[in-house]
Design the sequence.
């Protein structure tokens, strides 16, 4: 039976959810978000349009019977809500990808999806080229290196803030070099991108991560380089932020829209 594209629900209602909602409305898409899962403690931060039904618990959302749930909230929300939804037979798209660096959670999600005969899709978010990593790995990938660069002020409140006088940096400075596993733990604000690269390619322990504070640049960049039996690959992304939220990249919100569109297509383009 075809699933109803007018019965999509979202977990959270922050910057990305609002951007997605606005974009679907503006383009008069056949897809519509009609409900949100927002426990009471998060109500105050959301400005919900009247067209969106508010569910305070996962049980209420399951009862509302969404055709697809899109998680746009937090790592905690993935842990708390997604396994139950999958067990109830509801497909889910996850954007807080950093949560999946927790192997135990990933195993739980797999079990839940098997038991509910449902599907979890990981949005590519702020990074690209994941299709290449996924395809190339079956012939053998030797190296995958992710390099993330941001202006020094963007690393405030991270371990780099203790090690470097960020405001005094005058040249590009490497603030972290290590595995994607360590990067996910030490730099959680970067965890979504490092996790997406690690999951698509050769895993958290073999993916190398370099993080850079660059006082000569005002933008955030993401570079992925990979080599293996297939050949070599390199991609550089310079993402613009969402017009109304400087901390979230526009591409991440657009990637969710793409994920949802594909979910309801008969031919996945
Ligand atoms: N994959 C990527 O490349 C990528 C890029 C940017 C952001 N993200 C992730 O996407 C998520 C949303 O980003 P955003 O910019 O919209 O954030 P935001 O802070 O603007 O909005 C998050 C919303 O979720 C709500 N929320 C938090 N915990 C919740 C929970 N347990 N249950 C229900 N609602 C909850 C908050 O109240 C808020 O409304 C974050 O986890 C962020 O890390 C991923």
Sequence:
């Amino acid at each position: 039976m075809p699933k109803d594209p007018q019965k999509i629900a979202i977990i959270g209602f922050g910057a990305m959810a609002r951007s997605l909602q606005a974009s679907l409305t503006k383009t008069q898409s056949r897809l519509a978000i009609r409900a949100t899962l927002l426990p009471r403690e998060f109500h105050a931060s959301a400005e919900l349009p009247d067209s969106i039904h508010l569910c305070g618990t996962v049980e209420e959302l399951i009862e509302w019977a969404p055709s697809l749930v899109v998680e746009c909230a937090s790592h905690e929300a993935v842990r708390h809500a997604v396994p139950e939804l999958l067990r109830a037979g509801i497909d889910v798209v996850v954007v807080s990808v950093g949560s999946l660096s927790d192997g135990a959670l990933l195993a739980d999600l797999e079990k839940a999806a098997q038991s509910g005969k449902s599907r979890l899709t990981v949005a590519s978010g702020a990074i690209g080229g994941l299709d290449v990593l996924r395809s190339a790995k079956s012939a053998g990938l030797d190296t995958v290196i992710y390099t993330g660069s941001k202006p020094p002020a963007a690393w405030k409140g991270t371990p780099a803030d203790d090690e470097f006088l960020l405001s005094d940096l005058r040249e590009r400075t490497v603030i972290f070099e290590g595995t994607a596993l360590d990067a996910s733990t030490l730099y959680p604000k970067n965890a979504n991108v490092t996790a997406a690269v690690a999951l698509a390619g050769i895993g958290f322990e073999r993916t190398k991560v370099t993080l850079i504070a660059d006082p000569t640049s005002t933008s955030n960049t993401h570079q992925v380089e990979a080599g293996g039996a297939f050949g070599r690959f390199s991609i550089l992304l310079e993402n613009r932020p969402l017009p109304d939220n400087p901390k979230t990249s526009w591409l991440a919100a657009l990637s969710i829209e793409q994920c949802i569109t594909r979910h309801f297509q008969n031919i996945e383009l």
